[in-house]
Structures are given as structure tokens and as C-alpha cells.
Write a structure and sequence with these properties.
alpha/beta; five-stranded mixed beta sheet; 2 helices
């Protein structure tokens, strides 16, 4: 499994989906992105989808339960599916 971890919105965050796919090799079984938002931003998940996943097809919200603070988005229309974990961790 390969995991890319980034802070929102820093360090080439817009290319995170392409970055994790570029790390894949023949033995890779799973790909995941963990995006951490360390400040309160009410609409950051929508912005993430617009900025980071606008060019990909078939993004599915698999968050369970729906009111969970951690959002989980799955992109299946790639050679290997990519799961995006959007994690709000505001500073104290």
C-alpha cells in the first residue's frame, strides 16, 4: 500500500491524485491519500473535490456514516483505485 499525506492547502496539494498514482509499481495493492486540514474551513471538502479531483471520473463518497467528520472519497476510474481520506484536525 502506498499513502501520500499532505496538509491542506500546501505542498502541491492540487496534484495529489496524480502524485499517488505516479508512485505505483507492479507490486502495489492499494493507493491512498490522507489530506489533513489543520484549520476550520467549512467548505474545504468541496474545494478539495474541485481542485484535486476535477479531472478524474467516478468519484464516489463512501463516508460511513454520512455525518462522520472524516470524509472518504474513492476514485475507481484509474488503473488502481485511489481512496482519499479527508481529515479535519483543527489546531487548538
Amino acid at each position: 500500500m502506498l499513502v501520500e499525506v499532505k496538509l491542506w492547502p500546501r505542498n502541491d496539494y492540487e496534484d495529489v491524485h496524480e502524485q499517488i498514482q505516479s508512485y505505483r509499481h507492479e507490486d502495489t495493492k492499494a493507493l491512498a491519500v490522507v489530506m489533513i486540514c489543520d484549520r476550520f474551513m467549512e467548505d474545504w471538502v468541496d474545494k478539495y473535490q474541485t481542485k484535486c479531483l476535477a479531472t478524474v471520473e467516478s468519484v464516489t463518497d463512501i463516508t460511513s456514516p454520512p455525518e462522520n467528520r472524516v470524509r472518504v472519497l474513492r476514485v475507481a476510474a484509474t488503473p488502481l483505485p485511489v481512496t482519499h481520506f479527508l481529515l479535519p484536525v483543527p489546531r487548538r
